[in-house]
Amino acid sequence: LFALRVTVTNDATLLGFRISHHFADGKGAFDVVQAYCDTVAGKTIPTITLPPDVPMSSLVYGEDTLPKSVAEQAPYVHPRDNFSLGLIGYLKFLGSALYKVIAPKLGLEEPGLEQFVHLPAAYVLQVQIKCQAELAEATKNGDLSEGASLQLTKNDVITAWLLWRAYANVPPDSGPFDLVYSFNYRQAISQPAAGTTYIHNSYYNIWVNFPSLSIFKSLPLSRIALEIRLCCVRNKQPSAVRSSLEFWEKHRADFTAPGKRPYRMDTLPVISPWTTFGYNDLDFSSALAVGEKGSGKVVFTVPNAMLPMRVTLKPFSLILKDGKGGYWIRANLRRSWWK
Asked: InterPro entries per the record (predicted)?
């Protein structure tokens, strides 16, 4: 379930943590790393307990608080609108995913290219302000009704910017385009008692639907960010979390896969934000030799998530903070998309 590899070089110490994704999500993984850091520093860590022996859906609490400008009913919020049930759909998705892995090795498709992109704090803030101003102007002109009062987050604009740039050189067509966005529902469930914790995987994929790639490419950056914000606002409502968990609990023994609606692997990007995990605040100085105190602070984090057999998705991106107000994006895209 948990492995640690330490590599010592002349000018850096590399700590590699590996945790089963079925056991812990990104937040759970960070909690484990933080607990290890606190342990070597002699600090008290939360007591590990067993998770509640009840369906997770029964732990959801609170009432929905949708803003007035957001409609209550919307498609593609419930997983039944996005995922198919049954062996045929599952095998189809598995075959498509494996083809994307094997085809580049056989020369049938161009290979992927994984790179890091850095977005400085000032640039992210500039884009956020510009997008918010465009939405305000659209509302003033009567061109925007739903979501008119929403404030875009930095995650919204970074994700929108990433999609916008990634597909800039992809020819538009009428085929489907959906963003698969990793969503953590912990804020909607009862938390463990103070001083205790249990490790669990508390995320599922939500879908930001665009009717087609052509329509997506015709939208300004501000509207793409707004669609992402609307999707997050709807999906974080307690009723949405409860119904989603009930769906997965009911079908936990069934074969599930994307495919309730048409999809294409190249236009089904998966993006996972790790921006709430404070890796840059961790300090492992206590584990270093005497006289090196203060030099064990984390300066760079390399996030990763992969399927069994070390299969990586494409297009797939992880977003995390750089510790200085900016952001790093680790993106795996088609090679030609990087032009």
From this structure: CAT-like_dom_sf
* Those residues with Cβ within 8 angstroms of residue 301's Cβ, 6 or more apart along the chain or in another chain: 279, 280, 320, 328
Contact 191, 60 (CB under 8 A): no
Q: What percent of the chain has pLDDT over 70?
A: 98
Task: Report pLDDT for 59.
Answer: 95
How far apart CA 69 and CA 72 sit, in angstroms, is: 9
Using an 8 Å Cβ cutoff, are 307 and 261 in contact?
A: no
3-state class (DSSP) for residue 311: strand
C-alpha span between 303 and 234 (Å, rounded): 28
d(CA 303, CA 257): 25
The pLDDT tens digits for 65-77 are: 999 889 877 877 8
CATH of 2-338, one of 1.20.1340.10, 3.30.420.10, 1.10.357.10, 3.30.559.10: 3.30.559.10
Domain residue spans in the chain?
2-338
Is the pLDDT at 46 greater than 80, yes or no? Answer: yes
Q: CA 48, CA 17: separation in Å to the nearest integer?
A: 19
Strands 83-85 and 203-210: unpaired
217, 52 contact by CB (below 8 A): no
pLDDT in tens, 100-148: 889 999 999 999 999 999 999 999 999 999 999 999 999 999 999 889 8
**How far, in Å, CA of 106 to CA of 104, rounded?**
5
H/E stretch holding 223: helix 221-235
Question: Would you say 274 and 171 are in contact if contact means Cβ atoms under 8 Å apart?
Answer: no
